[in-house]
Amino acid sequence: FLSHSLQAKMSRPVQARRLEGIDKNIWVEFVKLAATYSKVNLGQGFPDFPPPDFLTEALTRALGGGNHMLHQYTRAFGHPPLVKVLAQFFEKLLGRDLDPMTNVMVTVGAYQALFCCFQALVDEGDEVIIIEPFFDCYEPMVKMAGGTPVFVPLRPNPPKDGKWMSSADWQLDPAELASKFSERTKAIVLNSPNNPLGKVFSRGELGLIAELCVKHDVLCISDEVYEWLVYDGKQHIRMASLQGMWDRTVIIGSAGKTFSVTGWKVGWVVGPDRLLQHLRTVHQNSVYHCATIAQEAVAQGFQRELMLYGKPESYFVQLPKELQEKRDWLVQSLDGVGMKPIIPEGTYFLVADISQFKSDVPDVPNSDEPYDYRFAKWMVKNKGLAAIPLSAFYSEAHKNNYTNFIRFCFAKEEATLKAANDILQKWKQEKTS
Ligand code: PMP
């Protein structure tokens, strides 16, 4: 019996081939480091302030309001009140009629929306263009679908006034971008406003991408989760509103970012039925649907925002105002200690140049760890301040060109940002004394 059970030990490889090379994940390591060492965590992107009262009240009402069916399954592709109000909202934003049942689908966060896109639209051997720096999950998701990611970097131009750089100074080289399109290209992933830089793509930049998409018959997966977080009077322009793009674009959004409830994991896609029908196939055969009660509360949140659209009381007007102030505080704090901030036009992230700090961070002999990783680890361990190395948002081939930056998240309470400022001020005094 014993020898039989020994023989029964599995020896064949268990891991599916599609997981090869995608097992590493920056967040596992840096979330753990932040939890262990940080006094102030400006690393992972989530607000530490409460969501708006109207939203938590909507959730409480949904829980206690006597409709016990809100605890049961709802429609697989989206709770009807939510898809209806999303359709109404996006009709306004896009200036076209939308069918809530076929042009909208609710997902488990924008993350699952992305997963559905790649699984439904990318085949073995297809190429998918990804603009660097990028939200890190795009690359493994393309690979899991059997596709090949093709990277094209935003290239930094020196700032004109010689002082702070803006995320707008990071631009695509039009010839380089065009060279990445071929008959193998199935899709391009666009993330505007962009995580991690905070870049908000201009109409001209979007027009260039749109032209190439039309010319080469390519899809656009448009990750717009930070659509409301745009500063200094800038405007978020929707790729799907450009000529020829509606028919080939999937818009992705997130209640997590929109209403400051990242833990609810409610996301959505908006697009033409001819694309969404395939996303529905992936969704119904994997996740089926996302928590009914959270969808109900998000639907009520959108109803309120629809009523107050463009008015000063609207959360979509108030949140960016508050975040812009927070951005400006963090800019001042970082500048004080000599970390040169790149002013973000959108999102709640800010990238700063740390090239002046090389003498602070001890060299690790024989380590091939990039400087920004070593810096971020050293900073959280020695200063108690957590941030994320920028090279984590680049492909293996390009990451060594971008190791002088780290990313901070400023969606934080005043007290958190003050505590970060105290750390930076103290650090500055130590440096100068
Ligand atoms: N896209 C981008 C660009 C993001 O930054 C994030 C979250 N950090 C997501 C998608 C995922 O959003 P969700 O939390 O709704 O899944």
Structure description:
By secondary structure, the chain is α/β, with parallel strands linked by helices. Helix content is 40%, strand content 15%. The chain has 14 helices and 16 strands. It has helices at 2-7, 26-37, 53-64, 80-94, 109-121, 138-144, 174-180, 203-216, 255-258, 273-284, 292-307, 315-337, 371-382, 414-432, and strands spanning 40-41, 104-108, 127-132, 148-153, 155-156, 165-166, 170-171, 185-191, 219-223, 249-254, 266-270, 340-343, 349-353, 385-386, 388-389, 405-409. It has a seven-stranded mixed β-sheet, with helices on both faces. It has a five-stranded mixed β-sheet with strand order 6-12-13-16-15, with helices on one face. It is globular, with a radius of gyration of 23 Å. The model has no long low-confidence stretch (mean pLDDT 95).
Write the layout of secondary structure elements.
Blueprint: H1 2-7, H2 26-37, E1 40-41, H3 53-64, H4 80-94, E2 104-108, H5 109-121, E3 127-132, H6 138-144, E4 148-153, E5 155-156, E6 165-166, E7 170-171, H7 174-180, E8 185-191, H8 203-216, E9 219-223, E10 249-254, H9 255-258, E11 266-270, H10 273-284, H11 292-307, H12 315-337, E12 340-343, E13 349-353, H13 371-382, E14 385-386, E15 388-389, E16 405-409, H14 414-432
The structure holds 4'-deoxy-4'-aminopyridoxal-5'-phosphate (PMP).
Catalytic activity: L-kynurenine + 2-oxoglutarate = kynurenate + L-glutamate + H2O; an S-substituted L-cysteine + H2O = a thiol + pyruvate + NH4(+)
Subunit structure: Homodimer.
Protein name: KAT1 transaminase
